[in-house]
Specification:
The chain has 16 helices and no strands. By secondary structure, the protein is mainly α.
């Protein structure tokens, strides 16, 4: 049985299901829900555009948002190496999971249906019927019987975090910022986690600060190695580019992580920062975290100042201060943060 499963590309491992699948889920989320929210927000806020164009953007964004489930299903199936019929059927299983259990339901339905679909793929002479039928049956069964409970639990758990952040704003702000920031830099998806937990309010604000600190922090402290290309790749792309360097020297995680832990309590007490689930785990990637912050808190100069200081200036300054000291004492050596940006 083990050999048969391996021949079908089914490998039971934490890496496959909690790193690879979550990473591809994030791509599906970005290609539907998150980009849809950005497009819709443009239509809602761009008052200078003629009304038909505003409506065009709003409708386009709403459509992209509504297709979150299918996008998650296809993305996960693709990431798990599904054959064509399983991949296409995952459109349905992802949609079923999302409709009954939200993003977490879509994730579970897509993973289970993909793996079961891979096992039956090309095993009969009527593969074109059997494979999509079994894939959809498996995914819909998961969505129907388990999805609602998963969705409710993830929402409840996220509300606990939000409540705890409001009751113990300093401690919880530090914890949320540190954990979500580390998740963003690690090869897992902070965006998927934030959406599955349905983070909102100050908890989402603290998560955004922690994630932004990782991206801006690494972009600034590695500037001497990576120049402008690395600054942009990490600052508005992803700090995940530093993962190979972190494996070689985990100490380089300290500056941006500490920056997030220092700034998050400010965002939960003095300068209250809020966000929604779509922006909470994005940091400064594509400036989605900032766009969603403005969508949540309103487009005001006060919000803009908080965003500037807590998402950009603060992380850059604190990270640089700590990293320079670490370079001085030999904890960070030259070229230990060099990344491959795919070109100069």
């Amino acid at each position: 049985m083990k050999n048969y499963m391996e021949s079908k590309g089914v490998k039971f491992s934490a890496k496959v299901y909690f790193i690879d699948a979550l990473s591809y889920m994030a791509l599906g989320l970005f290609s539907s829900l998150i980009i849809g929210l950005i497009i819709k927000t443009i239509g809602e806020q761009a008052a200078f555009l003629p009304m038909p164009i505003n409506t065009f953007f709003i409708d386009m964004g709403a459509l992209a948002i509504s297709l979150m489930g299918p996008a998650i299903g296809v993305a996960i199936a693709y990431g798990l190496g599904a054959p064509p019929l399983v991949l296409f059927a995952a459109v349905v299983t992802g949609a079923a999971g999302a409709s009954l259990g939200g993003p977490a339901g879509a994730y579970l339905a897509a993973v289970v249906s993909t793996e079961i679909g891979k096992l039956v793929s090309k095993t009969t002479k009527v593969d074109i019927i059997v494979t999509p039928f079994v894939t959809i049956l498996a995914g819909f069964s998961v969505a129907y019987f388990v999805g609602p409970q998963i969705g409710d639990f993830m929402t409840m758990f996220g509300s606990w975090i939000s409540w705890a952040t409001e009751q113990r704003p300093i401690i919880m702000g530090i914890l949320v910022a540190a954990l979500m920031g580390l998740a963003l830099t690690a090869p897992i998806s902070s965006a998927a986690i934030a959406l599955m937990l349905d983070l909102s309010g100050v908890a989402a604000g603290a998560a955004t600060i922690g994630c932004a600190a990782q991206m801006v922090g690494f972009a600034v402290i590695s500037y001497r190695e990576n120049k402008v290309g690395g600054l942009l790749a990490q600052g508005i792309g992803t700090s995940m580019l530093q993962v190979p360097n972190i494996v070689r020297n985990p100490r380089i995680l300290l500056p941006p992580t500490i920056a997030g832990m220092v700034l998050a309590p400010i965002g939960t007490t003095l300068w209250i920062m809020e966000n929604n689930a779509a922006g909470a785990g994005m940091g400064t990637s594509g400036l989605v975290g900032q766009i969603m912050t403005f969508k949540t808190m309103g487009f005001t100069w006060d919000t803009a100042l908080k965003v500037l200081l807590l998402h950009f200036v603060g992380p850059a300054f604190i990270s640089l201060l700590i990293s320079e000291y670490m370079r001085k004492i030999g904890w960070i050596k030259p070229n230990q943060m060099t990344i491959d940006t795919g070109g100069k």
